[in-house]
Specification:
single chain, mainly alpha, three-stranded antiparallel beta sheet, 21 helices
């Protein structure tokens, strides 16, 4: 533990000076002119201490690769440099540097790059992801049928505004039931088996590792290991690390649908665009998770490449499977609601104390002037923005937005990715970003369950399937968070480089 903390502190201090190379210092990074609506300047403030300019029709921000951008060689070099630094971090945190499988690392990176290029620029691949994106958007529409019966006019955003509990949480329940049904029919298992077979051949993984990595694209961090339940008690250190990192680096289908609704709102174009990006992020995270898990904890032993899915029965019949999935979805939705209530309340209390300290010391006025009014007082978001801003600059985030994106990474790590996406949604709606590419990169960066709370979830969930691995699970909790975070940052960096 001490080695990870020490390395992280040294890294932050060693690269913090590089932020000045971006041409914009953190305390002067964001100074936009106030938006004009009917000749009047309108601004939005929230309880997190950030003030953003608001413009009409901000939902018309199109996150489209068809937008023409000027190629910036400096940004390109920053992105490449960021990829090298992320790999350097993987090497730095490695438990056994001599046995790092560099061929697997290279194949994983090439796999990611080819996937990103194909989705952004190859028409038929892009069309395929658009079809999947449309399916997710359609699922959100189907959810309304059940939600309207329960909540009626409360779903009308024109009358009631946006109510998270009524418009976002129901998607988790429906998608959980749908996933359970697809699992009962064996559809998910077949898709996962094909992808796992490819992973074992290209990246030299064991069959169980490949199954877990690919299953995490569709399932949650505690559901995916069910596919390899028979193998878990016999797994070595590297394989357990792979299972944990796969869960940390990807998103479950239920929350994926929720994030599409949060970021896309009622705009069908934006919902489809974010659906494609979130799906891409989750798929790209699988090879990235392999890369960094194998760098941090290499596997010197021979691997068994047999791909065999554990045959767990999720229900006795179709209705039973749907009922079980619905019950799991309700538990997930209630858990998310309770978590958000507690975390956001604690965050507000913590920021209240920091704000008072800022008032007494005069720091608030300095912060407001130094950030051009974007941050109005001392807050956790402000501190996180400064802490991670150098890393954001290094991976290619626009210098004007590096504090905002850095704040989102900090919220994901310390709180949860759910709160990070909530903040991203609010900042996007308030038109707080200087460059639309920062929104896309943040979408990829937040993809994954890599946060400290997830360590306990994995120890409890996977530990129940393999009690003899509980000590190992607790030992690799922090390393798996680091690997999952590096995987998400690598995906964001690659997308940033390709977008120019």
């Amino acid at each position: 533990m001490k080695r990870y903390v020490f390395c992280l502190v040294i890294l932050i201090f060693s690269i913090s000076s590089l932020s000045s190379y971006g041409g914009v210092q953190p305390d002067s990074v964001i100074q936009n002119e106030p938006a004009q609506i009917n000749g009047t300047s309108v601004q939005i403030s929230d309880t997190t201490g950030i003030k953003s300019d608001f413009k009409k029709n901000t939902s018309n921000l199109l996150l489209s690769y068809s937008q023409k951008r000027q190629f910036s060689f400096i940004t390109f070099l920053r992105g490449l440099g960021g990829m090298v630094i992320l790999l350097g971090l993987g090497f730095l945190f490695s438990k056994d540097r001599k046995h790092i499988p560099w061929k697997t690392v290279a194949v994983g990176l090439v796999f990611q790059i080819i996937l990103a290029i194909s989705i952004l620029y190859v028409p038929f691949v892009r069309s395929g992801f658009e079809i999947f994106g449309q399916l997710f958007v359609k699922i959100l529409d189907f959810t309304k049928a059940g939600s309207e019966f329960l909540f009626g006019s409360l779903l009308d955003m024109n009358k009631s505004g946006s109510i998270f509990a009524f418009q976002i949480l129901p998607t988790m329940v429906f998608f959980s039931a749908l996933t359970s049904l697809l699992f009962y029919w064996g559809i998910i298992q077949k898709v996962v088996w094909v992808m796992a077979w490819v992973f074992t051949r290209l990246m030299k993984l064991s069959g169980a590792e490949a199954l877990s990595a690919t299953a995490n694209i569709f399932l949650g961090m505690t559901e995916a290991p069910l596919m390899i339940k028979a193998y878990l008690p016999k797994m070595n250190h590297s394989e357990i690390m792979m299972v944990m990192t796969g869960g940390m680096a990807t998103l479950a289908g239920g929350v994926l649908a929720a994030y599409i609704g949060m970021l896309g709102g009622n705009d069908p174009v934006l919902r489809l665009e974010f659906a494609k990006h979130l799906l891409t992020a989750s798929v790209m995270a699988a090879p990235a998770a392999v890369v960094f898990s194998k760098m941090l904890v290499p596997n010197p032993d021979p691997v068994n490449q047999e791909v065999k899915i554990s045959k767990d029965i999720i229900g006795n019949n179709v209705l039973d499977a749907v009922a079980n999935g619905t019950t799991d979805g309700v538990k997930l939705a209630v858990n998310v609601a309770g978590m958000l209530l507690a975390f956001l309340a604690l965050l507000a209390m913590f920021n209240f104390g920091l704000g008072k300290i800022g008032d007494w010391t005069g720091i608030n006025e300095v912060i407001s002037q130094g950030t051009g009014g974007r941050f109005t007082h001392l807050s956790l978001q402000f501190l996180l923005g400064y802490l991670f801003a150098p890393i954001m600059w290094l991976i290619g985030v626009d210098a004007h937005d590096m504090m905002l994106v850095g704040r989102l990474l900090g919220e994901k790590l310390i709180l949860t990715e759910f709160i990070g996406y909530i903040s991203l949604s609010g900042l996007k709606a308030a038109d707080a970003f200087f460059d639309y590419k920062s929104v896309i990169m943040a979408t990829y960066m937040l993809c994954g369950f890599a946060n400290f709370a997830s360590i306990g979830i994995q120890i409890g969930g996977i530990g129940a399937l393999a009690p003899n691995k509980r000590v190992l699970l607790s030992r690799y909790g922090i390393p798996s968070v680091i690997a999952g975070t590096l995987a998400s940052l690598m995906s964001a960096t690659m997308i940033g480089v390709l977008l120019g």
